[in-house]
């Protein structure tokens, strides 16, 4: 299998480079690609190449050329060399870098434009446009959904890690209404205790025990029925919020969901939502939560992309590669619309741009993904 991948990569590189030998004229769109074709993230770099091959096949325009170069993994010298080589080919627009930590370096090449799949900052930054699914885009979609559900007391869960302050600052800039932030320890042993305090779990347990005592010594049928109903409960009383947004993923997200269920948060009254999901089916195995909602890209298109990718390359792509797929489509659209691309201002389109993963808006030099809300329940994803 490894040899097969090497053969495919070699073919793709030959395909890209052979295109450079075509007609050199103003009708050629040359797009650079900064990808980690060596080092720790080489597999991701290879996947980006595959994805762009699929995109070129769909565009089906021989006047579009991709010029890939190895930007390495956390290697500034290799990154700069790659950009210089791309620029020497007469290219002024590049897909990449994938890491926002490289932005300071690419800003130095102010005669070039970089379309990055990073999701850290949706605002245009000098010569960089980030098209990743940002926290801002996800929060806009979620808060709209929560409002439609007529919820007005939201708790936003943030893990205590290196990103906590960064996330909190972003949330403060969004001017959200009726919410409070709850920072939690990702350690499951500590987490449950913290959520017990948040949900007033101990008091609600006492409420139940006290209520049960009112009926325990009574023999009438109504009291017996009341006691029987109380025996089915774990706590008595509501929590002081009606929706949660958990800014986490993977096992840490599952730990939070488990703790909320353990502390008897009523799922009929409290809306459970999260972000940063790419239709991870492992969430189905977290059967303590009946329904989990989150904003995401277009599921049908994403699945179609993954299936097509697997059919051709016998492997599943990294999620970020579909952003590169859309990036070449976006660049092609701007080029066809304007005839040439000179700066990031050429991407300040009015209206919305439809891509594979969904719809983009570029208002006030800011990238906003118009996301749909999906529900994970009963072992399936359903668009809300």
Notes on the structure:
This protein is an alpha/beta fold and 384 residues long. The protein has two domains: 2-133 and 299-373, Rossmann fold (3-Layer(aba) Sandwich); 135-199 and 239-296, Response regulator (Rossmann fold), CATH 3.40.50. Helix content is 42%, strand content 19%. It has twelve helices and 15 strands. It has helices spanning 2-19, 42-59, 76-88, 103-106, 135-148, 164-173, 188-198, 201-216, 221-231, 250-262, 299-313, 321-338, and strands at 29-35, 64-70, 93-95, 113-116, 128-130, 154-159, 179-184, 243-246, 271-274, 292-296, 352-354, 359-363, 366-370, 372-377, 380-383. The strands form four sheets. Strands 2-1-3-4-5 form a five-stranded parallel beta sheet. Helix 1 (2-19) packs across helix 2, helix 2 runs parallel beside helix 12 and helix 8 (201-216) packs antiparallel against helix 9. The two termini are 40 Å apart.
Short description:
With 384 residues, the chain is α/β, with parallel strands linked by helices. It contains twelve helices and 15 strands.
CATH level 1 class label of the largest domain? Alpha Beta
| Main sheet specs | 5 strands, parallel
Within the largest sheet, what's the order of strands? 2-1-3-4-5
CA-to-CA gap between the ends? 40 Å
Uncertain stretches of 5 or more adjacent residues: 1-15, 17-25
CATH topology of the largest domain: Rossmann fold
What is the strand tally? 15
CATH-defined superfamily of the largest domain: Response regulator
The average pLDDT value, as a whole number, equals: 88
CATH architecture call of the largest domain? 3-Layer(aba) Sandwich
Continuous helix count: 12
Give the overall silhouette: elongated
Taken in chain order, the helices and strands follow as HEHEHEHEEHEHEHHHEHEEHHEEEEE
Proportion of residues in helical segments: 40-55%
Whole-angstrom Rg = 25 Å
């Amino acid at each position: 299998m490894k040899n097969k991948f090497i053969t495919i990569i070699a073919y793709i590189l030959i395909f890209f480079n052979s295109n450079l030998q075509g007609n050199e004229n103003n009708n050629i769109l040359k797009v650079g690609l900064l990808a980690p074709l060596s080092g720790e993230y080489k597999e991701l770099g290879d996947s980006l190449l595959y994805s762009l091959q699929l995109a070129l096949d769909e565009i089906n325009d021989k006047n579009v050329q991709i010029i890939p170069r190895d930007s390495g993994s956390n290697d500034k010298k290799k990154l700069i060399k790659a950009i210089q080589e791309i620029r020497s080919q007469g290219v002024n627009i590049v897909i990449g870098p994938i890491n926002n930590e490289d932005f300071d370096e690419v800003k130095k090449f102010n005669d070039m434009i970089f379309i990055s799949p990073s999701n850290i900052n949706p605002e245009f930054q000098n010569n960089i446009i980030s098209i990743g699914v940002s926290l801002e885009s996800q929060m806009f979609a979620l808060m709209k959904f929560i409002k439609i559900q007529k919820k007005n007391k939201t708790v936003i869960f943030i893990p205590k890690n290196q990103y906590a302050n960064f996330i909190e600052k972003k949330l403060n800039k969004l001017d959200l209404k009726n919410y409070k932030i709850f920072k939690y320890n990702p350690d499951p042993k500590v987490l449950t205790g913290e959520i017990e305090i948040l949900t007033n779990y101990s008091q609600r347990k006492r409420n139940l025990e006290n209520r049960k005592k009112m009926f325990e010594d009574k023999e009438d049928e109504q009291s017996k029925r009341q006691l029987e109903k109380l025996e089915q409960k774990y706590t008595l009383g509501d929590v002081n919020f009606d929706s949660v947004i958990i800014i986490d993923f993977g096992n840490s997200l599952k730990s939070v969901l488990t703790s909320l269920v353990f502390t008897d948060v009523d799922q009929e009254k409290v809306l459970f939502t999260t972000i940063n999901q790419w239709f991870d089916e492992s969430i189905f195995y977290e059967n303590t939560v009946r329904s989990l909602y989150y904003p995401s890209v277009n599921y049908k298109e994403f699945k179609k992309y993954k299936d097509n990718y697997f059919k051709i390359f016998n492997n599943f792509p990294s999620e970020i590669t579909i952003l590169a797929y859309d990036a070449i489509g976006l660049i092609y659209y701007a080029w066809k619309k304007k005839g040439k691309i000179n700066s990031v201002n050429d991407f300040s389109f009015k209206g919305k741009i439809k891509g594979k993963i969904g719809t983009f808006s570029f208002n006030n030099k800011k990238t906003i993904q118009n996301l749909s809300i999906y529900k994970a329940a009963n072992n399936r994803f359903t668009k809300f």
